[in-house]
Structure formats: structure tokens, C-alpha cells
Amino acid sequence: MFIxxxxxxxxxxxxxxxxxxFELGSQTGRRRRGATPLYSYHALTGAxxxxxxxxxxxxxGYSESAKLLEGFDGLDRYLAAVGADLSSRRSRPANGRAxxxxxxxxxxxxxxxxxxxxxxxxxxxxxxxxxxARSEAAGSDAVKLVATLHGLTITSEELxxxxxxxxxxxxxxxxxxxxxxxxxxxxxxxxxLVVELTLxxxxxxITDAELREAVAQGKEILKDLLRALRLFGDxxxxxxxxxxxxxxxxxxxxxxxxxxxxxxxxxxxxxxxEDELRAFCNLVSRRAPHGNQLAWALxxxxxxxxxxxxxxxxxxxxxxxxxxxEPEGQSSGLLAGRMAALCxxxxxxxxxxxxxxxxxxxxxxxxxxxxxxxxxxxxxxREVADHLRALLRDVICGHLSPELPSVADELLVSQQHxxxxxxxxxxxxxxxxxGLPEPEREPVLx
Length: 446
Description:
The chain is an alpha+beta fold. The protein contains 17 helices and ten strands.
């Protein structure tokens, strides 16, 4: 048995002079206020075991134990219950193997909790194994939801977004529905990912009403995830039309997810970007706008991402930009200049202004049904979408004020002042070189 081998090895380390570290804590109990506190020492057995993980991994039975735990249905619940920290496994913090190895360390720490030696006590071993077994039993009525993601790939096998929500390659997850595993081939798309969402831990029997409520909640979580992914990348990610849910070990039931769109291109998330993506998804979930112009613009951006035709998406994206940049109305003609002020450096603002005006002209051609065979149209539509995504992302992240028209106007006024000062200095330099008196300047009234 691996635990017995681990106990022998760790005790040998103690006998050779190694020491279990201690933590000093204070206890005041029922003593009166101001009384001298009593101090106690707690053996940090778990920290000692963690320091010797590499040696334990070479012991007989370690690999077999890891394989058993990797396929253990209650693994995630067990890790959550013991408060296991996966952050130290930087290479692949979310894959099944890493979770299994963390569970081995957590189980050993439970068996020898606060011991200064590694004598194996049968009653403590039995209690620790029972706690592990209860993690599987607690999931008898667990509710899971599985969906497919297209237009996104990850370099890890699995990416844990948050507790209970995982993005993975289909072959990295066991027991998923056949439709999710084969979705890419069915849709004519070469590659796809799977989203697995645990909606309930299953500690109590679920009623039909609770199941419907859980599935509705799951759909909202998937919508939040999709919104964050589109803002994180280039807006081309899509969820599959079907999703699947099941209770406990019952069969998978398919249902229409109600989200449209097809992916365009591929957003790649590397291992180095995983922490950034987790933090960004959490931030978007907390800061997504509601009931204002920014929320309306964000919804138009999402609708544009779901259009079959990029020409139809162009109108969605321009409508979103007008909502947040041109509250005076389209007739004001302020959209292009304000967008250039926010999205381009001063030397490139004229160029971007012309590009936005060209996009507006392209939209009018779409509305009028005129020929759309114009050079650069596809690139122009992608550019508009990218600028909109960047503005929405910066506002949600707090990098830009939601009062975008005011911010843009201030930038334009600042640029005008700078250009006026530069022109004045050029006139003064020219007058100095010619020997003529400096020209009189009219007062600046703004």
C-alpha cells in the first residue's frame, strides 16, 4: 500500500535529522481581556510532505494511486473540501494528473495531520479514507452541463477557468457525451474544445424545478464565458448550438443552447496566458454593464459576433460605436473623429478617421443593396470590430472612463492646442531667420 511506503520513507527522513516545521499560535480562550495569551505550536505536517513530493513520487504504488485518483468522480469535490492549492503546479495547474497528485499529498496530510512523526494509526487512516470516499458519494445527484467551443484552442489539455468550470480538449475529459466529442467533425470544423460545468455538488436529491433552475443558471454562466472570450481575443469564438446535461450517473440529455454564430479564425490561449484569462473572465463577470448605453453596445457587439455575414455584423458594430461615441446622433458626424482620437496616435488619427468614414460608406452600400465588391472591405470590417472590442474591453477593465465622448473631445482639443503651438513656433522661427518682425497673433479663445 502506497500510504504505508510513504510513512516509512518520511519517518526515515525524520530519523535522519529532518524536522517537521511548526507554526506558533496564540490562545486567549475565556481568559479576561488584557491577560497574557497562551501560545501553542502546531506541526505543519502538510508542508513537510509537500517538500518531499518528488521523493514520494518514486515510491512503489505512487503511479497506481495517481491513476486511480485521476479517474475518481469525487476528485474535484475532495480537493475543494481539503482546500488544496493547485497554484504551485504552474505548468498545467488544471489537468487531471495535477489534481490527482495534489490529492495524494492532501490525503497524506490528512492521515498524519499535526503529527511530528509518521507512525501510521489505523483509526486515522480509516477516517481519512472515509472522507475521500464521501466526496464520491456526495455527487450522486450532481448536475453537469457540457457544451462545445469553436474558434478557440488552448495549449494545455485542460484549463480551469473557475471552480466547477473547465475548458478542455475532448480527449482530456472522460464520460462526456458522444455529440460533444464529435461536434467538430459534425459541424465541418477541424478542431473544437469542450466546456464542462458542474452546477450542483449533489449533496441532496434534486427536484425537476431545481434542475430547470440549475440549467438556466448554467446557460447564463456559458453566456458570460463566451462574452469574456470574445472580448479577450478577436471576437470570433462561438458556442455550439447544442449542449448536454445530466444528473448523477444518468444519461446525457441534449438541449438547444439558444446561442448562434459561427467561428472565424482561431484564438490561441497559451499556458502563459491562462492566468490572465482566468482573471479577465472573473473581471468581466463582475463588471459587465447593465441597463445603460455601454450594456446596449456590448450586446450589439455580441450580436455582430453571431452574424453569418460580416456585412450584417458591420451595422451591429457601427450601431454599438454610435451608442457610446455619438450620443448627439448620426447627423452630428462626430463618430469618426472621436473614434480616431481614442484608437489612434495623433499622427495616425487622420488615417483612421478616413477608415471609419469608409466603413460608414460601406454600410450605406449594404443598406442600398449596391455591389460590395470593393477592395479591402473585409479588412475594414474586421478593423471596426477590433476597435469596438478594444474600447469595450478598456472601459470594462477600468482603463477608460465610460464617458467616452468627453474623453475623445478632450484629446482632440489637446491636439488642436499642440498643433497651434507648433504652428506658432514655426512662424517665429521663420521670422527670426528672415529678420522681419514677428507677426501679430490673435488671442486664443478656447
